[in-house]
Amino acid sequence: MEDLFLPAINACIVVLGDIGRSPRMQYHACSLLEHNCTVEIIGYQETEPLEELCSQHSKCKIHCLTPVPYVNFTPTLKLIFKTIWQSLSLLRALFSINRPTFLLVQNPPGIPTLMICYLYCLIMRSKLIIDWHNYTYTILALSMKDGERNLLCRFARWLECYFGGKADAHFCVTKAMQMDLNNNWSISNVTVLYDRPTPRFQPIDLYKKHDIFMKLSKSYSQFRAETRDDLEKIGVKESTAFTQKLHNDIVQYKADRNAILISSTSWTPDEDFGILLKALEAYENNALQHSQDFPNLLCIITGKGPQKDEFVGKIERMKWVKVSFVMPWLDFEDYCTLLAAADLGVCLHWSSSGYDLPMKIVDMFGCGLPVCAYNFKCLDELVKPHQNGFVFENHQQLSEHLNFWFEKFPNNANINATKQVFIKHLQEFQGLRWRENWNTHALGIFNKYF
Q: Are 289 and 322 in contact (CB under 8 A)?
């Protein structure tokens, strides 16, 4: 691999979004740093980026864009104002950096990113590389009355297609997107670079699970032991709602513990949490009728975004007995650990284009966590039903999966065979991590152009 190392070059990564919530672009930055690049990142810094990018010893510099101010305009005027503001802000940031050998641009959002970055590269004689995560116009269509037929969406699609086709190289996240870019956008030089987990997403032992439960119990009552009876028992040193540590430091699961269902989200329109609520309502009703066969279920939903307050309001009106919720905001390390401590993951992402795959499933698989995922046309590139998870298309199907997985939890002999199949396939998935995958599929592309 040494002969593939990049020469000393300047790289600029453009994220017209929160850098801290753009893991794939951060992973690109880390990989480029490993290969002798000086990296500058342009984007918003609402959450803390990876430590490797913020270290004073790193050859990475982050340039923060000025957030778009609130204006009391009509939706269309707001969009125009936002586009102008971001264009000027991005141009100012681009002309403040050292001339880069190339710009690696996240799409979406493609407006105004692709046009501005193309013009900058034309002036500075830098190479333009686009990493296609999805399509801007399909996301925009979610908020438009006529969807993709809306004039603004059609104009956005034209801009995205025209300036996207001007790039020197392309990455995308699925084979389905590669085919679509080739067949419908006439963009042929596209390399599929699947998302893969970093080593931070790993299965953990029971001791680490107990530690994360103890840490979270200080802030969230759902993780605390219900009474002090546990600590009064002979030999018990520490206790949570799920585990206990004995005086000899052995950690045990509690026999009557709750089950943990976990989901992460950015609370955007391409995730329908109404499906989850209806499925959990069905689980609640079934569990009340068969109380001895189904555990209490703690549903953990991490993340923050525009639709969170609406969801919180809905669950606060529900008076459930067998299902409870907690919605923590976690730092990166705790998020990784909590995924590995859960019993089942849920992904409600349905993809506005049908061509992208959710990073959260990749993270869950990296931790050895099976997932229930909303089905769409390219999901089978990642989720294999009854091999590493389940798929569903409505709340009834999701409810059936929950009932199957959690019946007689945690000692249902009927699903042990299924669990062993999942473990086998998840271990195979964990055999290829981001670094090795990037070196195999991306490094050669950079060398080809530079």
A: no
